[in-house]
Structures are given as structure tokens and as C-alpha cells.
Amino acid sequence: MSGTKWAASELETLRAEYPNTDTAELAKSMGRTKSSVHNMAQSLGLKKSASRIAVVQAQRIQQLNALALNRFSTGHNTWNKGKKLPGHGAPNTFFKQGHVPHTHKPIGSQRLCKDGCLIVKVADTGVRRQDWVPAHVDAWVKAHGPIPKGHIVVFPQGMRTTKLHEITADRLECIDRAEVMRRNSVHNKYPPELVKLQQLRGVLTRQINKRAKEQRA
Q: How far apart are CA 128 and CA 120, in angstroms?
């Protein structure tokens, strides 16, 4: 019957049953092949309901779990249990416990990053972002503690350097991001002399605010 034309009654049955019925079971009850039922459902724009999809997914998960239990049941031995790796020369190429690769850099090492900034190694966790930090950030943190949230450490205008002995806390500034944006805009709009005055004004304002805060405390 799979090659015959679909009757109107069959189409009505298909519309009613397809969304919530297993396709194979529906095809068997209608005397048609599974592919025939599937193709007609597609041509009619029929889809499985959300509840039916959930049932199918749950069944698949159960099947996968059962398959995993059969493959790795209690007492199961792996194929290589108790076997030695082949080859006499292979062990000489393995990393032994405590091995240090030739590319390892000790704490205190220095290098330039892609932005031309000097970075130093301060830890040996194996996580690059934790082990290597900008030298000017390290200098500031050692002198003043953690950088406040929303702030960054920068070189004052004209004092940027990649020489470690010249990167000291007294030659650095910790400013908020709003100040960074303001300075960038000032540098783009005004001559160096006026930029310097603006920076001095910012330093003076911060010192006044700091003294006022200390007096209130």
C-alpha cells in the first residue's frame, strides 16, 4: 500500500496521530512504510509535538546509559591493564616526574609583550595570565597593594620605559578609566604644553581631595 495514493481519511489520521505517535508504529498501523509516512508528514508540514520529542530524547538517554553500563560494568578490565608499553627506546622520551622543559622561565624573568610593554614573571602556576604581569603593575602593587576596582596603573606622559630599574611606584599613576579617556582626548586635541598643565592640574586636584579626606577622617 506504500505506493498507492493517500486517501483523505488517511491524511486525516496522519494529521491527528503523527505529532504524538511513534512514526514506525503509525506506519505499521496504516499499512505503509516508515519513509512514506515521514515524507507525507513533511509535505503536510507536520511536526512532532514537544511532549513526543521529550519522550524520544528520554528513551535515547536510557539507551546510551544502558550501553555504557554494558561496556564498562563492574569488574571490567581495560585492554591494556597490566601491559607494558611497547618499544625499548620510548621511555627515554617520556617526561619524568619533576621534569622541567628547556623553555621554562624562572620567577623574576623579563620579556616584552606584543604591545612593547615589559612584563615580569611573578609566579609559577603554569597559567600565563597569573604568572606574567606588566612590570609597572607589579611595582605599584608591591608598593601600594591591590589596584582599586575600575582603575589602572599607567606611566605619566613621557615616562614610559622598558627598563626594570626605572619602573618604580613613584614614577607611576593609578587612575580611573574616566581619567584615561579624558587624557586620551586631551592628547589628541591639545599641544604637549597644555597637556602637561592638565596633568599637573589633575595631580593637584587629587592631592587636595586626599588631604581633605584625611582631615574629615
A: 11
